[in-house]
Amino acid sequence: MTESDFDRLNRVLRQFAIDRDWEQFQSPKNVAMALIVEAAELVEHFQWLTEEQSYQLPADKKQAVAHEMADILIYLIRLADRLGIDLLQATDEKIALNDAKYPVEKVRGSAKKYTEYE
């Protein structure tokens, strides 16, 4: 069996933390808090932009946004690793739950929450 890109990334991130003796600091609580900080840094790039401007980021801003997104992914993968959660399996499960909550025939073209359809 070959290693998936996701598994490789998880292994690299785990080893990065081990090599620096950072796992002692990377409790689920701390990693979750760091993830939220990075998400806030991502949002900061879009604050006060119009919808159209948010699609038309200059190259340097787009690169900064890409790095913030990478930070979020890194912390999310680390959090899943620290908790022993198979993130891809959890994602598949959540997609199935969302599919049941948001049936196409009821929600197509609407941004309403699923509780507004019941």
Structural write-up:
With 118 residues, this protein is an all-alpha fold. It folds into 2 domains: 1-85, MazG-like (Helix Hairpins); 86-118. It is built from 6 helices and no strands. The longest helix is centred in the middle third of the chain and has 25 residues, at 59-83. The termini are far apart. The mean pLDDT is 94.
What are the key terms here?
118 residues; mainly alpha; globular
Question: CATH top level of the largest domain?
Answer: Mainly Alpha
Please write the string of helix (H) and strand (E) elements. HHHHHH
Name the assembly state: single chain
Main sheet? none
Counted by DSSP, the helix tally is: 6
* CATH fold-level label of the largest domain: Helix Hairpins
CATH architecture tag of the largest domain: Orthogonal Bundle
Tell me the total number of β-strands: 0
Number of domains: 2
Overall helicity: 55-70%
Structural class: mainly alpha
Strand content: under 5%
Spans of 5+ residues with little confidence (pLDDT < 50)? none
Q: N- to C-terminal separation?
A: 45 Å
